[in-house]
Amino acid sequence: MKKFEEVKSLVAALEADADKFYNKGNSAAGTRIRKGMQDLKNLAQAIRLEVQDAKNKA
User: Fold this and answer.
1) Which of 3, 7, 25, 44 is the most exposed place for a label (fewest CB within 10 A)?
2) What's the number of domains the chain is made of?
3) Which family does it belong to (predicted)?
4) How does pLDDT run across 11-25, given as a tens digit for each residue?
5) Residue 20 burial by CB count (10 A; 0-12/13-18/19+): exposed, middle or buried?
6) Is the full-model pTM beyond 0.85?
């Protein structure tokens, strides 16, 4: 459950950069969004593996 909370926190942190990129045209914010989304992808994959492992053990 800790990793799921990290996902929620990461998405919330990216919200300000998304606003800067999409509404204000700040390209540096776009770079931060791309990095954050890559981190999100890796975290989501870790959660998927954790869930699959727990499911297989049950």
Assistant:
1) 25
2) 1
3) Belongs to the histone H1/H5 family. HCT subfamily.
4) 999 999 999 999 999
5) middle
6) no
